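README, section 4: Worked example with a bound small molecule

Sections 1 through 3 covered apo chains. Here we extend the same pipeline to holo records, where the ligand is supplied as SMILES alongside the sequence. The molecule in this example is zinc ion. Nothing else about the input changes; the structure line simply encodes the ligand pose together with the chain.
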Amino acid sequence: MSELLLTGIGRLITNAGDPITDAAVMMVDGEISYAGTASDAPDQGGGDRIDCEGRAVIPGFVDAHTHVVFAGDRADEFGLKMQGASYAQIAKHGGGILSTVAATRAAGEEALFQEAATRVRRMIASGTTTIEIKSGYGLDLDTELALLSVARKLGHDLPVTVKTTFLGAHALPVEYRDDRKGYLDLVVEEMLPAAAPLADYCDVFVEEGAFSVDEARRVFEAAAGLGLGARVHAEQLSHSGGAALAARIGAVSADHLDHATANDARLLAESGVVAVLVPGASYTLRSPQAPGPMLLDQGVTVALATDCNPGTSYLESMGLVVSLAVVEMGLSAEQAIQAATRGGALALQMPDHGFLVQGSAADLVIIVAPSAVHIPYRPGTNLVWRTIKAGRVVAGAWH
Ligand SMILES: [Zn+2]
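The generated complex, written as structure tokens:
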């Protein structure tokens, strides 16, 4: 039996009621056995103990949308974008998703794993305890399978829970430039059946220049037949109908939503689709933020994620995402932290994660500050003092 007791917590966010001051948390065998006031805490046996000395504790971050397995970078493209180059101009210069596809196809599985593991270790040190990882930089059968295998291996070898998503319909690969139907046939008839054992979900980038609503519907129907739930890249660069599609097919999440309307929000709320918002992408693209406050007002469950990818959101820190959600998108600090923890867990269908009550997963973060408001208030500083995954300290800083 493994036991860990946290004492001296200045302020505890449980996501299941008001914050608790002067709190304690007891963890036994990877689960929370007590989270409440220190005065009511049970007597501890012979397990480990950490005195938090007034620091705040929140649930571990759940990063519900990433493309963290890739090779190469797009720093040159970033420079062009900051000088005002358009997406189309960048594509003409050989940039965009397809340049990452070329680098990823050439990299090999071992190099892909090592590069991604370095990023994921930094994410864990920044307080992330669960992460969703998409394929989509292979766009051929072998590389798509390699990306999903690497994602699964990250969850196996590192102290983080990983959920995987097949995103074969991310972009049209160069070799199919004049044969959209041929590529979709490949995705549906060959890639999906081969990827299904390695994937929890299927995703499609619904956007002008990527895939249409009708094309996406075909992919999602095939995925549903293989038992894969749907996630949709929806309404990112324009209003393309991805959110309404997500609602109609009962998708698990609709992601991005920068151009979502009040009607989209109503549809998402009615059908229980979680909105996964990625303010880092809007920040990097200098495009409008998703209407987070409106989505919450309409009763949509909102999650926050990094969208970590080398083109439009090379962010690893959920703390920075929380800050962007507060400062740029207009969520309150409490809403943003809840969305980055409990919201993410709901977006990944993990009902026993993202909150701290008896019986929930012992995934949490000790913050080097007296309250969690310091996370949005002090952007760019990693305020994580200890990351605890399944009741074990897995990362820590010495400040
Ligand atoms: Zn994405």
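What to look for in the output: Residues 312 and 369 are 31 Å apart (CA to CA). The radius of gyration is 21 Å.

Section 5 describes how to batch many such records.
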